């Protein structure tokens, strides 16, 4: 009898907790955006019989309960602490690595080989079409390995990772000789320095600087040295995208530094009329927000146009992901005008746009993870 009574009490308590949390979640004001995760959150879906029977409503409602769960960030942080305590090596696609690094998990199973090979084919077609007119030095492809490859020695023992060196070789072998800038050796030689952030998936300004020097040399440009810049730390309180997944309260923040030319340079940056133009490559207002990396080039935009005080007639097109944002402050000093295109939002045919703008130079710059999975690369050969 006592055993049955105890079971009933435990069942009632469990149901009270479940229904109580559900009621609290429904009563708590919804959030439309998570600054910590830098993404839109699922709001309470509207009910319809069509969505209900198709399963769309239940799927959205499940995402809603997860996204809007009361004190969600605190629960994620608590789980992260527990995982560390039991010496778990990863959580939510993040490795707990040596030297306080959080490194994005990217394994061979994460690669859609068909998409990857399709994107390589499109790169090859683009280079073969445009290299005769631009010249070998003026058309470069740079697909950058991520931290899980360069900092492999910091990963937990036996942690599975994709072989990005092999992927780099596949891209290089497919392209005409001299068109691919393979940055693996450059970044590997400096892996004991901070070439990637500890809490974010991007490379640091120093990592971008090192690869800028390599690209410039291979593109026939005399690269500037560190002595040509004043290096300034603008924050020491940066928690990036990878931290947002694990939310470990014991993680130390990153610092962000920028390279300011000692030579007098001026910039005018326009965002295709969608945002206010800037007279700087940086929007320092983001330093007061969670998404501090967006201080570089004002975050993601379909098209950004940069005009400088250079008068050499050189005009560069950068087709890119956000790795290019902290690369731009180095490349910008060698061109009169630069256009940065993000295929996630840019809808014009690239052949038409290139003919219209008459670029003298082109750089395609992605990190390996984004390049391999990008479903928008068809725009490259339209």
Structural overview:
By secondary structure, the chain is an alpha/beta fold. It has helices at 2-27, 49-54, 56-67, 72-85, 113-134, 147-150, 164-174, 184-189, 205-218, 241-246, 328-331, 350-357, 368-373; strands spanning 33-34, 39-40, 90-91, 94-96, 102-104, 139-144, 229-238, 254-261, 267-270, 303-308, 315-320, 337-341, 361-367. The strands form four sheets. The protein has a six-stranded mixed beta sheet with strand order 6-13-11-12-10-9. The chain has a three-stranded antiparallel beta sheet with strand order 3-4-5. The longest helix has 26 residues, at 2-27. The protein is globular, with a radius of gyration of 24 Å. The N and C termini lie far apart (76 Å). The model is unreliable at 75-87 (pLDDT under 50).
Fraction of residues in helix: 25-40%
Low-confidence stretches: 75-87
How do the strands of the widest beta sheet line up side by side? 6-13-11-12-10-9
Task: Give the overall pLDDT as a whole number.
Answer: 86
Radius of gyration: 24 Å
- Structural category is alpha/beta
Tally of strands: 13
Compute the number of helices: 13
Q: What share of the residues does DSSP label as strand, in percent?
A: 15-25%
Largest sheet: 6 strands, mixed
Order of helices and strands: HEEHHHEEEHEHHHHEHEEEEHEHEH
Distance from N terminus to C terminus (CA atoms, Å) equals: 76 Å
What sort of overall outline do the alpha carbons produce when their principal axes are compared? globular
């Amino acid at each position: 009898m006592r055993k049955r009574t105890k079971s009933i009490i435990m069942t009632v308590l469990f149901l009270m907790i479940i229904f109580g949390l559900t009621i609290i979640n429904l009563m708590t004001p919804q959030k439309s955006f998570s600054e910590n995760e830098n993404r839109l959150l699922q709001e309470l879906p509207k009910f319809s019989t069509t969505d209900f029977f198709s399963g769309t409503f239940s799927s959205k409602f499940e995402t809603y309960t997860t996204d809007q769960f009361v004190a969600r960030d605190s629960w994620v942080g608590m789980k992260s602490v527990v995982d560390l305590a039991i010496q778990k090596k990863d959580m939510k696609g993040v490795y707990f690595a040596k030297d306080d690094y959080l490194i994005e998990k990217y394994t061979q199973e994460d690669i859609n080989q068909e998409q990857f090979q399709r994107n390589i084919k499109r790169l090859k077609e683009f280079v073969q079409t445009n290299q005769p007119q631009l010249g070998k030095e003026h058309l470069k492809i740079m697909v950058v390995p991520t931290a899980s490859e360069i900092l492999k020695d910091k990963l937990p023992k036996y942690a599975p990772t994709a072989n990005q060196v092999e992927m780099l070789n596949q891209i290089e072998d497919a392209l005409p000789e001299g068109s691919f800038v393979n940055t693996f050796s450059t970044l590997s030689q400096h892996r004991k320095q901070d070439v990637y952030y500890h809490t974010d998936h991007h490379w640091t300004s120093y990592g971008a600087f090192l690869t800028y020097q390599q690209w410039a040399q291979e593109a026939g440009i005399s690269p500037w040295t560190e002595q040509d810049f004043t290096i300034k730390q603008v924050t020491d309180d940066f928690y990036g995208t990878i931290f947002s997944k694990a939310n470990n309260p014991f993680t130390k923040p990153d610092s962000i530094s920028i390279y300011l030319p000692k030579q007098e340079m001026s910039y005018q940056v326009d965002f295709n009329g969608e945002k206010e133009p800037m007279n700087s490559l940086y929007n320092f207002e983001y330093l007061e927000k969670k998404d501090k990396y967006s201080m570089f080039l004002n975050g993601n935009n379909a098209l950004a146009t940069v005009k400088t005080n250079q008068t050499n007639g050189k005009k560069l097109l950068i087709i890119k992901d956000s790795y290019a944002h902290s690369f731009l402050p180095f490349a910008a000093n060698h061109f009169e005008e630069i256009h940065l295109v993000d295929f996630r939002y840019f809808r014009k045919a690239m052949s038409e746009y290139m003919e219209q703008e008459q670029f003298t130079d082109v750089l395609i710059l992605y990190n390996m993870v984004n390049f391999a999975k990008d479903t928008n690369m068809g725009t490259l050969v339209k």
